[in-house]
Design brief:
two-stranded antiparallel sheet; single chain; elongated; Helix Hairpins; 60% helix
């Protein structure tokens, strides 16, 4: 008996596509955070450990912040400081929920 039509799209390919979509969103928004901080130099992130701003946001730090934001872990070591960066965080969360909804 063939599987129901609902189950046809699931399998290894679907899992790989979902993982690739997640990774793409992390990299895209990580690059966006880094670019915003590089261009505007307004230090959009706040370092909660030292109490100051993140003077130089490295590409790795931007990717880490994007991953922590996307997984909703929220370590709190680096947090959004400006309204613009909070809006970008919000858009990232909506985007990832949209990716999740597409793959379900």
């Amino acid at each position: 008996m063939p599987p129901p039509a609902v189950m046809v799209g699931f399998g290894k390919k679907m899992g790989l596509r979902y993982a690739a979509s997640q990774l793409f969103v992390v990299v895209l928004f990580g690059f966006l955070y880094w670019l915003i901080n590089y261009v505007e130099r307004n230090y959009m992130l706040h370092d909660a450990e030292t109490g100051g701003t993140v003077d130089k946001l490295t590409f790795f730090d931007a990717m880490f912040f994007s991953l922590v934001t996307q997984t909703t872990v929220g370590y709190g070591t680096v947090v959004s400081r400006t309204y613009f960066s909070k809006i970008v965080n919000f858009i990232q969360l909506l985007t990832i929920y949209g990716v999740l909804a597409i793959h379900l």
